Amino acid sequence: MKKSLLALAALTAFAGAASAQSSVTLFGILDVAVRGVDNDNGARTTLSTDGNASSRLGFRGVEDLGGGLRAGFWLEAALSPDTGLMGSSAQAVNQIFNRRATVSLTSGLGEIRLGRDYTPTFWNHTVFDPFGTNGVGSQTNLMWAFEDQDPPGQNYIGGRIGYAAGPINVALAYGETKEAVGNETLEAWNIGASWNFGFMTLMGQYHDYSIGARQTENFLIGGTFPLGNGVLKASYSMTSLDAGGPGLPGSGNVSGDASQIAVGYVYDLSKRTALYGHYSVIDNDPGLRFTASGSGKTNGVGGFTSQGIEFGVRHSF
Fold first, then answer.
1. What is the C-alpha to C-alpha distance for residues 51 and 131, in angstroms, rounded to an integer?
2. For residue 21, what is the DSSP state?
3. Which of 112, 194, 120 lies closest to 160 in space, CA to CA?
4. CA–CA separation, 235 vs 130, rounded Å?
5. DSSP-based three-state secondary structure for 85
6. Which terminal CB of the chain, N or C, has fewer other CB atoms within 10 Å?
7. Are 313 and 274 in contact (CB under 8 A)?
């Protein structure tokens, strides 16, 4: 009897230890704002999302396999709290975990990750922009998308390398997408850096995207400044488009520049909840139609000035 009790106690202790070596976390962000955009063709006010951070719902877990080896998973879905729907209009109906869906093995040497994840060139956009990739102040408001061929024919390869220690953070990324149809290659590379001076963090980035004779270049310089119980943000960015000449499919026969000035303030009510306000103005060369947060009515001709303002609340859990 005593032996049976000892065996049961040992099994119970072993099960408890095994459970302690595995963990699963539920996490997420809800970000909703009132946003107004005026493109010189009538203002539009909307209930919008993701002005300060991307709304999401996710699950992640890790298991200690021993010997310094760990297994993990990460499932993350976009949310639209203004409508209550999951994901975005651009994703497939049955694509729930559109932000990330990966399984990985990690050791002291690094991580092997398989599944759906962000491209390496994406991270420099969000890490080295005071506004990240969200809201009316983001530099991505000035991004240009080249036309796409048949998606099943695409072949992508890319990588990112960086250094971050103390106040310094710098990273270089490259990626290329080869088209099986059309025999063209989209090449993208960017570099970003930031330096924390204590009273402010200065940051900058440069991006180059080209396919055939068409090219997009953009750069940003900006900073964040601790102020009171929050952070003041400001940036200046510019995009230069070269359509590669008239008559190229998808080029729109448009070449020119567009610039954006953005300012904002994020006030922390707690470690998880914040209020924010952002403002930006975009100046387009003739023919270009970039808008604040990519929204609002346009005149279809281009060359207008776009202004955006938003006030919102962000809560993470």
1. 9
2. T
3. 120
4. 7
5. strand
6. N
7. yes
Amino acid at 140: T
Containing H/E element for 4?
helix 2-20
Residue 3's SS3 state is: helix
Q: Is 69 left (phi over 0), alpha (psi -120 to 50) or beta?
A: beta
Q: Single out the residue of 262, 271, 312, 248 nearest to residue 290, CA to CA.
A: 262
Q: Provide the 3-class DSSP secondary structure of residue 25.
A: strand
Q: What would the two tokens of residue 173 be?
A: 């990324």
Angle (CA) 82-84-90 rounded to 5° is: 80
Q: Look at the alpha carbons of 176, 249, 145, 58 in this order and tell me if their dihedral is positive or negative.
A: negative
Q: Tell me the per-residue pLDDT of 80-137, one tens digit each, with 9 for 90 and over.
A: 998 888 876 555 556 789 999 999 999 999 999 999 999 999 999 999 999 999 999 9
Q: How many CB atoms lie within 10 A of CB 198?
A: 7
Q: Is 246 left (phi over 0), alpha (psi -120 to 50) or beta?
A: beta
203-213 pLDDT per residue, tens? 999 999 998 88
Going 16 to 19 to 21 to 27, the CA torsion angle's sign is negative
**Which are the contacts of 120, defined by CB distance < 8 A and separation ≥ 6?**
158, 159, 160, 173, 174, 175
- How far are the Cα atoms of 73, 79, 104 from residue 60, in angstroms, in the given order? 6, 17, 11
Distances (CA, A) of 57 to 71, 85, 92, 133, 272: 21, 12, 17, 18, 15
- The span from the CA of 313 to the CA of 212, in Å, is 43
Residues 6+ apart with CB under 8 A from 14: none
**What's the rounded Cα separation, in Å, for the pair 244 and 162?**
32
Indicate the pTM of the whole model.
0.84
Q: Alpha-carbon torsion 61, 52, 293, 158, what sign?
A: negative
Which domains are seen in the chain, by residue range? Answer: 38-53+120-316 (2.40.160.10)
